[in-house]
Amino acid sequence: MVSHAIVDARSITAHHPLGTSTGHVVELRGQWDLLVRRALDVSTLAVELAALSEPEFLSLCDWLQDAGRGLPFRFLSVHAPTKQLALPEADLVELLLALPPVVDAIVVHPDVLERPERFAALGRTLVIENMDGRKGTGRTAAELEPYFAALPDAGFCLDVPHAGSIDPSMGVAHDLLDAFGERLRHVHVSSVDEDCHHLPLTAEDEEAFGPVLARCRDVPWILEADLPRR
């Protein structure tokens, strides 16, 4: 039996590898030098550089070309833009393909993909994230199946609170791991509010998420909010 305390604050910080997303540090958005310094305060092992808008992404592309080789992280994920999208999708794919080799994974939201097959050239670097309860697709294993069928080499990013927003019993999270666990590349961890904004992990969610995270021990855990203070 999995202990209800398996995901307490100390066990999260002890997970190897652990990292943070820069997406929740809104006051530094687009300031990549400062965002990386903030991420290094959490871990030198893993990071997700979140460029959630297209202008942020374009600035990240330029920054990585100059600074990417000097980054110390063993696992580096880039979150592709999901809003303020103006470039033709084919041009966005070309920019993703041009990211330097230091990038281990590129996370995409399935609901913004116009033609998923365009992203096939990214191979295993591409990682599809499950969506939260606000979205119209990409939330369950059945809804994600067509995307993985179009992108047979793509990996999977399990966003645990997104799954919890669909099904608080966490059955959807287990279904996603049953279907795509062999593709799992990393995990997003936090709590969310009623509008699905990421928050520090609560004690209630620690208990609810524990059995799910116990199935994800071999991949990086990426924090999408600050660690809770206990």
List the helices and strands and how they pair.
Blueprint: H1 9-14, E1 18-21, H2 32-42, E2 46-50, H3 54-67, E3 75-79, H4 89-97, E4 105-108, E5 126-129, H5 141-150, E6 155-159, H6 160-166, H7 171-180, E7 184-189, E8 191-192, E9 198-199, H8 203-213, E10 221-223
Parallel strand pairs: 1-2, 1-10, 2-3, 3-4, 4-5, 5-6, 6-7, 7-10
Antiparallel strand pairs: 8-9
Relevant terms:
34% helix, 230 residues, TIM Barrel, alpha/beta, eight-stranded parallel beta barrel, 8 helices, 10 strands
Description:
This protein has helices at 9-14, 32-42, 54-67, 89-97, 141-150, 160-166, 171-180, 203-213; strands spanning 18-21, 46-50, 75-79, 105-108, 126-129, 155-159, 184-189, 191-192, 198-199, 221-223. It is an alpha/beta fold and 230 residues long. The protein has one domain (9-221): Divalent-metal-dependent TIM barrel enzymes (TIM Barrel, Alpha-Beta Barrel). The strands form 2 sheets. An 8-stranded parallel barrel has the order 1-2-3-4-5-6-7-10, surrounded by 4 helices. It has a two-stranded antiparallel sheet with strand order 8-9.
Question: What would you say about this model in short?
Answer:
This protein has 230 residues and is α/β, with parallel strands linked by helices.
